[in-house]
Amino acid sequence: MNKPIKNITSDFEQIISLITEARNRVYSKANAELVMLYFSIGKIVSEKVLAGNWGDGTVNDLATYITEKQPLLRGFNRRGLYRMKQFYEVYSSDEIVSTLATQFKKDEIQFVSPAVTQKGNKNKIEKVSPLVTQIEGTVFEFCKKVLSKINWTHHLLILSKTKRIEEKLFYLNQCINEKLSKRELERQLNSATFERTMLGDKFSKVITSKLPVGIFKDPYVFEFLALPEIHSESDLQQALVKNLQNFILEMGKGFTYMGSEYRLQVGNKDYHTDLLFYHRDLQCMVLFELKIEEFQPEFLGKLNFYLEALDRDVKRPHENPSIGVLLCKGKDEEVVEYALSRNISPALIADYETKLIDKKLLAEKLHQLSEIFYKNE
């Protein structure tokens, strides 16, 4: 007797799944070997040039020699060889060794601005490393255990669009943890995700210890909405829902959409929140409330009311307290600091922009906030 068609299809899908998994493993292994190869070639070229044994002409001769011996190979021209040299020098420099020593724990790697989660009671915040891997103290081990996890195209983007080692490590972490595509990585780089995430972390540390680090940004950038400069809160909400995939990409892949105009019943009245999400790593709901004007202290009262209602009536016993994010069209940071200084609920007041922001302005703002932070330590 023949198997039902449904069972046969299930068998077929199992085989397809095995093929896909095998292909992914082969691709991952091939990519790791390629990155290690480029790192090794970069080491040789770097050391020869540094010692004065090779000049620019010799590198050109090497490119020609490789082409003659291996005519089908791509990426080993003069430009490609110098990229390999840069790749090795960046990740074997004294700066990276120093950064690894100060920011990575002994026997494990913990990237800059790791995700944290709240466990147990709401006053306790415990760090959880997004990527933990053994390292034996050599740059080649770092390459093998970390750098080889993302492909060469991603490395070239990070090398060309970042300056600081901390920034490079941040995007390495993003690529590995969130499995960013080339397009997604380009958007993070172009929208200065590193600076905005660090700004969110720094400002949170100055005024409160309730928020996890590495999750929220300030400001948020919604250039994909194509909104006019003058728009209503309804326009903003509808545009974000319509472009939900890009909105979640801007927030981070840990977010799951729960709905807009989410209804909360308190007493005999119904209230509707703007945008509600669930964060899988934090295990809590995250409420985004939208304002098209500059932050006012009274906005916080409404946000706290919604968070209390969510925690009493919607939150499940195993979940952590809800987090609120007020997205405003501008804010006075001193007013925000005063407003949040006695706030009980975990909340963030963040700007939003409808156009890409100059990275230099964000870097200057981050530097200024860092000075405030260190003074308060």
From TrEMBL:
<protein>
    <submittedName>
        <fullName>YhcG family protein</fullName>
    </submittedName>
</protein>
<feature type="domain" description="YhcG N-terminal">
    <location>
        <begin position="141"/>
        <end position="196"/>
    </location>
</feature>
<feature type="domain" description="YhcG PDDEXK nuclease">
    <location>
        <begin position="215"/>
        <end position="366"/>
    </location>
</feature>
<dbReference type="InterPro" id="IPR041527">
    <property type="entry name" value="YhcG_N"/>
</dbReference>
<dbReference type="InterPro" id="IPR011856">
    <property type="entry name" value="tRNA_endonuc-like_dom_sf"/>
</dbReference>
<dbReference type="InterPro" id="IPR009362">
    <property type="entry name" value="YhcG_C"/>
</dbReference>
<dbReference type="Pfam" id="PF17761">
    <property type="entry name" value="DUF1016_N"/>
</dbReference>
<feature type="domain" description="YhcG N-terminal">
    <location>
        <begin position="15"/>
        <end position="104"/>
    </location>
</feature>
<dbReference type="InterPro" id="IPR053148">
    <property type="entry name" value="PD-DEXK-like_domain"/>
</dbReference>
<dbReference type="Pfam" id="PF06250">
    <property type="entry name" value="YhcG_C"/>
</dbReference>
